[in-house]
Write a structure and sequence with these properties.
globular; 6-stranded mixed sheet; alpha+beta; MPP/UQCRC_Complex; about 450 residues
Length: about 450
């Protein structure tokens, strides 16, 4: 007791005054080769993030070669005219840099992170990769084999299998969106170095590419660095490429991907809806968050807390392709898993939540919590250069203005409960949802049919 009495207790730290915050605005420019450049100075961020966006979308892949964009993206780090694959990896490591690349519906993206002191060297490496990739036969063959090895594992994953089936159901067979982003076993097996190089030569050029650079650029002559690296990349101009509109069939129905003996059912419920160019997007984001964006959302309160069916159910909107002319679309979906015996009751309660939402609307308290979570934590979300660069790259990919994200947060804060309710009800109409269930059809088909939420079809799992 004597020791406790003599201890000196320091006062508890108190929160300071909140400071104004807005998503950082980039500076826009271009290089002599036509490459568009967005830069954003972030004091204190000693790890610089670079995103390079290439106008090589999945719908540009040749017929029968789905996945060639993915193989090309992965091959950028597998050697150049200056370095073998092993040497290129070693040079990246010496820089303390990481380089990732992936292909999606809007195009191919390369993501680089490197300490600012090694930025010049890393930019030179990524410039070499874009300017003169080796695409060696042996490396392409290895990447194809690796991709073929991944496919069975993806099909065995219930959530990946559900996503594949939802795309197949929603989009017409001749649409690239109906097929797996990274290709099937048949199409990937047909890819060789010649196919990769042909795709590269047709679609990869600086005139249609954008580089985003974010970090502490104090004392960095970025114009000179870019000119000496990415500025040496050359290529011809490109003719405008027609972009097919997104069409989808969201007739209410249920597809069960049969997994005999499965102890859980993976559910994915979705349709397509407005993208970020639509005026409804801020209200749709807010309403969807209230429905299933966090542990305190309506879906979790009922299915997780009250009924104990699941560890969590989420509702979300994911942009598939965005365009100012209205030809873009977002995937609006609800995802989660439940134990097999409670699949029917869980789906029934989920539909009850949607119907109640349509009948009674959101509450002001739900709206306020959503705004606080979405807007209030934004400064923490964008503490790293990579987070800022990724969002700026998303804006470029989706043909949005440079101040879009900053404007979105203001719009979210100003969106009322009535607007958020109308948006989420329109996003998830109870009679226009395609439901995918990956589970044991023998146990779940009959109770699901009894719900009357659409015709039920059973397909075999691969």
């Amino acid at each position: 007791m004597t020791e406790l009495a003599s201890m000196e207790f320091h006062p508890q730290p108190q929160a300071g005054e909140p400071r104004p915050w807005a998503f950082p605005a980039p500076e826009r420019g271009s290089l002599g080769n036509g490459l568009t450049v967005l830069r954003c100075h972030r004091p204190g961020q000693q790890v610089v993030a670079v995103e390079v966006l290439l106008d090589a979308p999945l719908d540009a892949e040749p017929a029968g070669l789905d996945g060639v964009a993915t193989i090309m993206a992965r091959a950028f780090s597998e050697g150049t005219d200056k370095h073998s694959a092993e040497e290129f990896a070693a040079e990246l490591e010496r820089c303390g840099a990481t380089l990732d690349a992936h292909a999606d519906h809007p195009g191919v993206r390369l993501s680089l992170e490197v300490p600012v002191s090694r930025l010049a060297k890393a930019l030179g490496l990524i410039a070499d990769a874009l300017r003169a990739p080796a695409f060696a036969d042996s490396e392409i063959e290895r990447l194809v084999r690796n991709r073929l090895d991944e496919i069975p594992h993806e099909l065995a994953n219930p959530s990946r299998r559900a996503a594949k089936e939802l795309s197949k159901e929603l989009f017409p067979a001749d649409s690239r969106m109906s097929r797996p982003r990274q290709g099937t076993e048949e199409t990937v097996a047909a890819i060789d170095s010649g196919a990769v190089r042909a795709f590269y030569e047709k679609h990869v050029r600086p005139a249609t590419a954008t580089a985003v650079v974010v970090g502490d650029l104090t004392g960095v002559d970025l114009d000179a660095l870019l000119g000496d690296t990415l500025g040496t990349w050359t290529g011809s101009a490109a003719e405008p490429r027609p972009v097919p509109p997104v069409s989808a069939d969201d007739t209410g129905r249920v597809v069960i991907v049969d997994r005999p003996g499965a102890v859980q059912t993976q559910l994915l419920i979705g349709r397509t809806g407005a993208d970020r160019h639509d005026r409804v997007w801020p209200a749709q984001v807010l309403g969807t968050y209230c429905l299933g964006g966090t542990l305190t959302s309506r879906l979790d309160r009922v299915l997780r807390e009250e009924k104990g069916y699941t560890y969590g159910v989420r509702a979300f909107g994911q942009v598939l392709r965005s365009a100012p002319d209205g030809t873009g679309a977002a995937m609006l979906a609800i995802s989660g898993s439940v134990d097999t015996p409670n699949t029917g009751p869980a789906l029934g309660d989920l539909w009850t939540v949607l119907r109640t939402l349509a009948a009674e609307g959101l509450t002001d308290a739900e709206r306020d919590v959503a705004v606080q979570n979405l807007v209030g934590v934004a400064p923490l979300k964008y503490e790293t250069a990579a987070a800022v660069a990724g969002t700026l790259a998303d804006q470029v990919e989706q043909h949005l203005p440079d101040d879009y994200q900053a404007t979105l947060y203001r719009q979210l804060a100003a969106t009322g409960t009535v607007e958020a309710t109308a948006a989420v009800v329109n996003a998830f109409p109870v009679d226009r949802l395609v439901t995918i269930l990956v589970g044991d059809a023998a146990q779940i088909k009959e109770p699901v049919e009894a719900l009357g939420i659409g015709e039920v079809t059973v397909v075999a799992a691969e």
